[in-house]
Amino acid sequence: MVTLPNPPESARSAASFARVPYRPLLALTLLYFTAKLLFFALNIAVELPPDEVTHLNRADIFAGSWGVPDDGPETFRYGLIEGVPWLYNWVTGRVLNLLGWLPVADWLVLRLFNCGLGLLTVLYGLRWIRLMTGNRIVHLLFLVMITNVLMFTGLAAAVSYDNLINLLAVLALYYLFRFSEDRSVSTLAKGQLAVIAGVMTKTSFLPFAFILELVLLVRERKHLLGAWGHLKRALAKPEEGAAPEVVTGYRKRMAWVVVTVLAGIYAAGFYGTNVLVYGHLTPKADQVLSLEEAMQNRIFARNYIVRQFKEGNLSFEEAIAMTRGIHEPGNARRARNLIAVARDPGALAASLLGPMEYARRWVVFMLADGMGYHGHLVMRKWSTSLYPMLAILLVTAVLFIRKWQPDDAGGAWTGAAVVAGFYALVLLVLVNYRIYLKSGMLDYALQGRYIFPVLIPMAGIISYYLIAYLPRRSQVLVALLVAGYFIYGELPFFLARAEACWFVGAEGCQY
Fold this sequence. Notes:
Blueprint: H1 11-18, H2 22-43, H3 52-63, H4 87-99, H5 106-132, H6 136-146, H7 150-156, H8 161-182, H9 185-199, H10 205-219, H11 227-234, H12 244-278, H13 285-288, H14 291-294, H15 298-310, H16 316-323, H17 329-342, H18 345-351, H19 355-370, E1 373-374, E2 378-379, H20 387-403, H21 412-439, H22 455-467, H23 472-488, H24 491-497
Antiparallel strand pairs: 1-2
């Protein structure tokens, strides 16, 4: 475990931490989270979670091929397959191949598989926080926080590639910080393999991969000159007659390194080919398909119609008429709203928020959306429901500014803050604000779940800096208050507001 120079713990306080019913509380929290996953997986309507129908159909398409299937009439509706990251769809296709014989619906099989991904994300988050600090109250508060975020729980019980992304993000984070402790080639390879798998699952993982690699290089800058020699020694073949455990360790290290190198070459070739052939990291649908074929996908159709109207190629009436061909009602409504806003460019430009005001609203919206639920039905947290979370963030920010030292936990907390802050900044400035300036709509392409790849380091920073510098009794009191807010504000909040259309079997609902 990384030693923690700040804050100091006396022998008496260390002994008092030992009296916390640590393992029972961990087990109870994990059991409660598992029960909630099963509740959401069994009861939420299939049409409701974000893009779940698309992921279900893509899994079924991939189940028909042991490789990556070609684009065809059965795939057009669900988006491009050629040239886009495919790992999640390939994995869910294999799950259907292996478990499709079970006497339950495919959607339930895949939801339960995603529950497993969500549970692994939480378990590796717990392993990560244990690397960062030995404070058991921090561990418990951290675990309660990440297992009582409504959108995270609801998403983990749905079929979504975000679940694999969240797992790969915490795996990469965990192995990055563990490598600083054990200096193992296998640990480094596992972390790199998680990064590679992430970029082959979703392109939005690329900024996370970039900052993680940068943090790794900075943390290991003193060891870079000797890195090649260390690698050669670690991968040197054991001498004849070496002990069996030495030979086994060598073979495992070699296997991890070989798999990681081959995967890295494939990923570099995948994105490099796209850039050379299509001029983008991933091709646009109409670069691979005909326009008629590409228009069968709801997202491409929405964006294409709006773009054509903005460029003057369609009249307002023609654009509105074309939106009626979008098969998903939500995207058809969004297209009509975007067209209506773009109808008066002067008024749009005059109404746009400046970057600082947008950032303030972005933070509030991300919290309201992420702490609530955003699918094809929406249940956000506003006003009084959100005030305690805003207060928690404000107090944490003040304490972080006052107490932070670059070498906290050997620099690990600094690394975690850099990863979380960089990813959030990219999402805010380079993604969401740019989209807002073009669309004029604050909530367009803005969802709380997009910040979840850095949920683990964010929750870790909050749980640590909020309580670690307090006296022991105050730590317990603050942890109980914050934990109570998260627990009461998740499943009870949802059940108090969810109507019949949220659940399986409801009739007459439009999502």
